[in-house]
């Protein structure tokens, strides 16, 4: 059996193991170890490569970025910054068409700029936005779908953990990935806002339980406005954090790791200032940070080892030759790759897709002359869509479980997120066809 055949068989074995329920890290390590052992017929070499991969991975300075941004996001979550951001957005947008839906998207956009985790956004805004939207006459399923759909902004707007994971796997600048995510992230947020307003005009019954009553409620003038001083005090913490992290990154003053450290320290000060961090909560945050960071680092080490096995098998070069001989242009390859990611998103979580696909696809994209940062934004966009598509749809399940409303089924939430999926597909096509949308700020 040729080394290429062994490589292809091991990829199939990897996917089967993951679908059977094996943790992705152990499946990657097992496939990588077995592949090197069989291809080189040397057990000692497999152990030695595993040791070198683990050491070089942990020694990498960039790995410190992950726990720092995870800590920042968790501290922001316990400080109720998400709730305050939504309240300000609600105040400013309450008379806009689908005002609370637009406020949810706006608050998620700002919240994403300091957390970078879609699941955190989904959990926070399910508790904050859904009850408020329901009270104002929005359909509960639509409110839940709006939270789930807009929560994916956390995976694209920097700092995003998926952008960090992709940067490590593809060996590209994490700071560059953060900058490249800004314009597509804004496009996605604006697309969501336009879609919500359009739905309210065209199909108000999809949005409201009683469209006529909702129209009357929107035009009421007797609601006491929030004082400007209160509004500024609620927005100040998140504005300062965004300025510290993104301003420092885009100006070149901070490296991504330094930005994570400064952001985590700033989030700690915000939590202390708001008296939302007692000893018990601090211990819980630190424990969560450690658990999440270690699991991500283990995944990245396993993916790096798996990537080395693919290189030993010569798989990326062989697939690149097949792509060229098949007559695929760079754009054609990107769309084929996006379709594969979308299909995988129906059965696997986002991190698993990146860990399996990026080591194979990134070298092929590079050999076809595709900018790897542009390719990374396309990858993350396609993976994001998988957060909303059945049967896996982890953002949908997070919202539905957090909501815990027997009258709102998972199927109803999936149906409510469909317009968001269509907007994301449109943005994916635009970004693929117009690379400057991702690279203009670099």
Q: If you had to describe this structure to a student in words, what would you say it looks like?
A:
This protein is mostly helical. It has one domain. Helix content is 79%, strand content 0%. The protein is built from 23 helices and no strands. The model has no long low-confidence stretch (mean pLDDT 82).
Q: How much helix is in the residues?
A: over 70%
> What kind of sheet is the major sheet?
none
Please state the overall shape, judged from the principal axes of the Cα atoms. Answer: globular
Oligomeric state of shown chains: single chain
Q: Report the count of strand segments.
A: 0
Kindly name the structural category: mainly alpha
Number of domains: 1
What is the tally of helical segments? 23
Helix-strand pattern: HHHHHHHHHHHHHHHHHHHHHHH
How large a portion of the residues is in β-strands, by DSSP E?
under 5%
Poorly predicted runs: none
- Distance separating the two termini: 45 Å
Q: Please give the radius of gyration in angstroms.
A: 22 Å
Mean pLDDT, to the nearest integer, reads 82
């Amino acid at each position: 059996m040729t080394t290429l055949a062994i490589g292809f068989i091991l990829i199939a074995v990897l996917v089967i193991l993951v679908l059977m329920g094996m943790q992705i890290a152990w499946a990657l390590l097992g496939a990588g170890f077995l592949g090197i052992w069989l291809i080189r017929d040397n057990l000692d070499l497999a152990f030695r490569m595993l040791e070198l991969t683990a050491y070089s991975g942990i020694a990498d300075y960039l790995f410190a970025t992950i726990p720092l941004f995870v800590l920042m996001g968790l501290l922001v979550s316990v400080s109720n910054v998400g709730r305050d951001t939504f309240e300000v957005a609600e105040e400013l947008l309450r008379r806009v068409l689908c005002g609370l839906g637009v406020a949810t998207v706006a608050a998620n956009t700002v919240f994403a700029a300091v957390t970078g985790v879609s699941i955190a956004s989904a959990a926070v805004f399910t508790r904050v936005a859904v009850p408020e939207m329901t009270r104002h006459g929005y359909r509960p399923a639509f409110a839940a779908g709006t939270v789930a759909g807009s929560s994916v902004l956390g995976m694209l707007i920097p700092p995003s953990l998926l952008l960090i994971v992709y940067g490590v796997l593809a060996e590209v600048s994490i700071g560059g990935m953060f900058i490249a995510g800004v314009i597509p992230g804004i496009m996605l947020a604006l697309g969501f806002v336009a879609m919500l307003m359009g739905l309210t005009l065209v199909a108000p019954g999809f949005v409201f339980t009683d469209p006529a009553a909702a129209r009357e409620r929107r035009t009421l003038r007797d609601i006491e406005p929030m004082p400007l001083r209160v509004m500024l005090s609620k927005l100040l913490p998140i504005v300062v954090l965004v300025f510290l992290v993104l301003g420092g990154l885009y100006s070149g003053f901070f490296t991504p790791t330094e930005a994570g450290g400064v952001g985590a320290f700033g989030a700690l000060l915000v939590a202390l200032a708001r008296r939302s961090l007692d000893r018990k909560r601090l211990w819980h945050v630190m424990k969560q940070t450690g658990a999440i960071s270690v699991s991500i680092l283990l995944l990245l080490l396993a993916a790096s080892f798996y990537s080395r096995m693919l290189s030993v098998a010569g798989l990326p070069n062989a697939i690149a030759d097949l792509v060229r001989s098949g007559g695929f242009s760079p754009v054609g390859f990107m769309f084929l790759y996006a379709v594969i990611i979308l299909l995988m998103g129906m059965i696997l979580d986002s991190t698993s897709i990146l860990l399996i696909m990026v080591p194979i696809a990134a070298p092929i994209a590079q050999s076809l002359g595709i900018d790897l940062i542009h390719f990374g934004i396309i990858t993350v966009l396609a993976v994001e869509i998988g957060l909303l598509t059945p049967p896996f749809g982890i953002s949908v399940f997070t919202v539905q479980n957090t909501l815990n409303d027997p009258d709102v089924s998972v199927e109803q939430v999936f149906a409510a997120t469909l317009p968001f999926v269509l907007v994301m597909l449109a943005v994916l096509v635009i970004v693929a066809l117009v690379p400057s949308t991702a690279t203009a700020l670099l």
